[in-house]
Amino acid sequence: MDSTRILLWATFSLLLWVTYTAWVAQYPVPAQQPSAQITGTEQLPTPPAPTNDELPQLAEPPTLATPTADAAVALSQPIRIQTDVFQALIDGQGGDLVQVELPGYPVDKESTIPIRLLDYPQQERWVFQTGLRSAAGGSEPNHLAEFSAQRMEYALGDSADELSVTLDWENVGPLRARKVYTFRRGQYAVDLSIILENPTDEVWRGAAYAQILRHHTPVERSFTSVDSYSFRGPVLYDGDEYEKLDVEDLIEEPVNQSLAGGWMAAIQHHFLAAVVPPPADEYHYQAATRGNEFVLTGLSNIAEVPAGGQIEFPFTLFVGPKLQNQLTAAGPELELTVDYGMLTILAQPLFWGLERIHRLVGNWGWAIIIITFLIKLVFYKLTETSGRSMAKMRKLQPRMKALQETYKDKREELSRHMMELYKREKVNPAAGCLPILIQMPFFFAFYWVLIETVEIRQAPFMLWIDDLSSRDPFFVLPLLMGAAMLIQTRLNPAPPDPVQAKVMQIMPIVFTAFFAFFPAGLVLYWLTNTTLSILQQWRINKVIAAG
Question: Which domain holds residue 520?
Answer without folding.
Answer: 2-25+347-546
